[in-house]
Amino acid sequence: MGKLKLISNGIIKNIILLATGSIMAQAITLVSSPILTRIYGPSELGVLGNYMAIINVIMPISALCFPLAIVLTKSEDEAKEVASTASIVSLLLSFLSATVIVFIKDIYVLPFNSFYLFFIPVVIIFSTQLQISQQLLIKDEKFRVISKLSVVHSFIINLMKIVGGLFYNTAITLILVSSLSPGVNFLLLRRFSNNKGTHNIYCFKKIFIRYYDFAFYRTPQVLLNGISNSIPIFMLTYYFGAKYAGFYAIANSVLTIPTLLVSKSVSDVFYPKFSKLINSSPREAVKLFNIATLSLIPVAAVPLIIFGLFSPELFNFVFGSGWSVSGEYAQVIALASFVALVSRPAITAIAPLKLQKSFLIFEIASVILRVLIFYIVVNESGKHLEAVLSFSIVNAMVYFLISLMVYMNVRKKI
């Protein structure tokens, strides 16, 4: 019990440390948002939303999720071998994506110039190096470095968007800055991590086989999750135009601030601790899981109450009267954001519990359900707000079921 208390105190300290940096970084983003909504219109932000929906699907799978295995390694040499494998995979995927873009760029109708798809191969390489640097720092428990640099990165990127918009306030400026974002973040973190960019091709086969479940189970799950989160952006653009996608993008970005703020801090600290305890002290791992989950309920309740009750008025005041639709969207997706935040320890525990295969099957079913719900509601009612509300309810149910599934598996370890 004493050991668990020490671990819990250490986790809380590290969570507070990371959360402090996240709070400052997200505060910069939040303060910048009203400025950006007065420089760029809903259509420009809707175009950015579509581009970022594609990027947010691709970035987490840029190295087939191998960077996530770094925390599970037993030695520094093995961590470097996993980093080398992830880098090699990202180079291959970058080349593959560039080849595919050459053939499809003129086939699909996008709300932005298809030329900007060629940023994607570069984003793949830099986002992989960013993930490697982050995971190496997490493994070494250098949370203070991560915390400080997240603030610096947020300041640089938001300043670039604002200054760029003053000279050229089009979606292209936003797309260019957003494409540079992972590269800037990687360059900031690289100095403090052991990610020196050296690649050992001889370890590729060994590492790929050892951590194959990240490639074959975790990657499809993350891909499907990215697609499901992007469904509203794509479907609102298709049925109602980029303007409504812009409304949703702003609402979703504001609502995800509390989730990103706390959940990443919790995940970065909880993941390595839980991974160690689940095999060495299962009973303490269960207690740790319960502490992490229950502690998030009061934290998540604050934004739920604020946005659930007052978001239309808040959005009108902060972003201007032209963004009232965003306030309505925020009000209906607040519940899903609450459940998503509380379920963060459960999602983090999937890899250490080796539930990737089961979770993949679950994710496939949930993506199909999300698409069907949005499609049915749009075609039956023709109302964008009802479609977003239905999607939010399904999202909340999905996250709740994930938490329940993981909790049941955690209990089996006792």
Q: What is this structure's SSE topology?
A:
Layout: H1 2-39, H2 42-58, H3 76-104, H4 119-139, H5 143-167, H6 171-190, H7 204-210, H8 212-240, H9 242-280, H10 282-319, H11 324-342, H12 344-348, H13 356-381, H14 384-411
Helix pairs in contact: 1-5, 1-9, 1-10, 2-6, 2-8, 2-9, 3-4, 4-6, 5-6, 8-9, 8-13, 9-10, 9-11, 10-11, 11-14, 13-14
Can you describe this structure in just a few lines?
With 414 residues, this protein is mostly helical. It is 82% helix and 0% strand.
Number of helices: 14
Can you count the beta strands?
A: 0
- Overall mean pLDDT stands at 85
Give the CA-CA distance, first to last residue. Answer: 15 Å
Helix content: over 70%
Please supply descriptive tags for the structure shown above.
0% strand; 14 helices; 414 residues; mainly alpha; single chain
